[in-house]
Design goal:
Layout (H helix, E strand, L loop, with lengths): L13 H14 L3 H16 L3 H9 L5 H12 L19
Length: about 90
């Protein structure tokens, strides 16, 4: 069963919007699909780990020293350590 998509409003610079509309025509793909693929490609290219993102979005703001300490600790966390946590992977083919 395919996941339901969420609806959100985005604003783009007119140049970006024109580019998206042209890509839509050229590739016969929706703007949503093009943006979705671009974001996932960016996340993969930059090496964002879904577990890291999930943890960081749940973390409370802290001072720079505490952030440095927490980052060191999180860098040592393995996939095995997180096996009991359910995190969506970047599982869309791009």
């Amino acid at each position: 069963m395919e996941k339901l998509k969420e609806r959100h409003n985005l604003t783009f610079d007119p140049v970006v919007w024109d580019l998206l509309n042209n890509l839509k025509k050229i590739h016969d793909e929706s703007v949503s699909s093009i943006v979705e693929k671009a974001v996932l490609m960016y996340a993969k290219k930059e090496g964002f780990d879904p577990n890291y993102i999930k943890i960081m979005t749940l973390a409370e703001p802290c001072d720079p020293q505490e952030e440095e300490e927490l980052t060191k600790l999180l860098n040592e966390v393995s996939a095995e350590d997180l096996k009991d946590y359910e995190v969506d992977e970047f599982d869309i083919e791009v």
